[in-house]
Amino acid sequence: EEVNRLNGVVSAFLDYSRPLKQNFGPTDLGEVVSRTLKLIVNDVPKNVTIKEELAEAMPRVDGDAEQLKQVLINLVQNAVQALGERQGTITLRTGRPERFGEFRGPEFVELQVADDGPGIPADQQLNIFVPFFTTHQKGTGLGLAISQRIVKNHGGTISVQSRQGEGSTFTIRLPALLEDAPPQE
What we know:
single chain; about 180 residues; alpha+beta; 5-stranded mixed sheet; two-stranded antiparallel ribbon; 7 strands; about 25% strand
């Protein structure tokens, strides 16, 4: 068991340290979510319910589906660990960010991973994307750092909103492909 754990630590460290091999192309986030869930559904404990809330007719992103899948797996695994033994729900949601007034700029699409777990204490939220920072007993502290790096390489951002006792929502915002975006008035 300890050898397997150490193998996981070394693998995560190597993933973080080696340059990303990227295979970008038009990518449907909803499809990435569905394929990822099929991959991990059997590893999710019985006390956790996973819900999909995928928006219709979303523009695609210029992305690497395998890397985005890795980000999703990291976020879902963190949510499962946060829930622990308690009953809980993890929701994977795609959509468009709220537009503020007359804001004009590039179109973005959002992917959210939300859980109704214990939440992340405010003092820890500042450090969760820092390599090797972990609150999990068996964690490497590299999952969120790798996820952030992948999202940044896609021209996007990843952020967290969390309140203790109310759960956490990780939001990934990626630029939409222009040819898929609806015309602006």
